[in-house]
Amino acid sequence: MTLADRLGMFIKLAAHGPFLTADRLRFAPWPGRHANQIAGHTSPEENLTPRIPEQIMAALLRAAVFYVQTAARDLIAADHELHALTAALPPARCPSVDVPARLWAFVTARRAERRGLPALPIRHAGQSILRLPPGQQLLAQVLSRLRRLPIWI
Predict the structure, then answer these.
(1) What was the pLDDT predicted at 153?
(2) What secondary structure, in 3-state letters, does the chain show?
(3) 115-137 per-position pLDDT tens digit
(4) What is the tally of structural domains in the chain?
(5) Binning pLDDT at 50, 70 and 90, where does residue 71 land?
(6) Domain limits at 26?
(7) Is 46 inside a domain boundary?
(8) Is the pTM of this model over 0.85?
């Protein structure tokens, strides 16, 4: 691990500060400077990467020109069509519902009424949900997710 790598860790730690706890790094070390600069590394003036061969660059350039001159119109038209189709869809049934809150309210109401939660008939217990009658497949999926919630019923 080089000195620049070690210094870079502090820069990254500061960048992630808003997502960390109270003991995060509260200042940006060496603002506006790269870890290599701080470590004193210099780079040669000339780019040492070899050039892309002409035959490969020509093919890449033809593909780029095709996208700009031909495919871009089709892609933009497809994007507009997608937005129009999405806008024509009926609104979602519950777009802004707080599902965990509604679920907790449902469980609380059932508990207050001294009623249990809906369950599959005992004859279907342990079966794969694919072999259940269609109306009970959704119920089986919901109940399997309920078991993972951090609530006591």
Answers:
(1) 38
(2) CCHHHHHHHHHHHHHCHHHCCCCCCCCCCCCCCCHHHHHCCCCCCCCCCCCCCHHHHHHHHHHHHHHHHHHHHHHHHHHHHHHHHHHHCCCCCCCCCCHHHHHHHHHHHHHHCCCCCCCCCHHHCCCCHHHCCHHHHHHHHHHHHHCCCCCCC
(3) 777 665 655 555 555 555 565 55
(4) 3
(5) confident
(6) 3-39
(7) no
(8) no
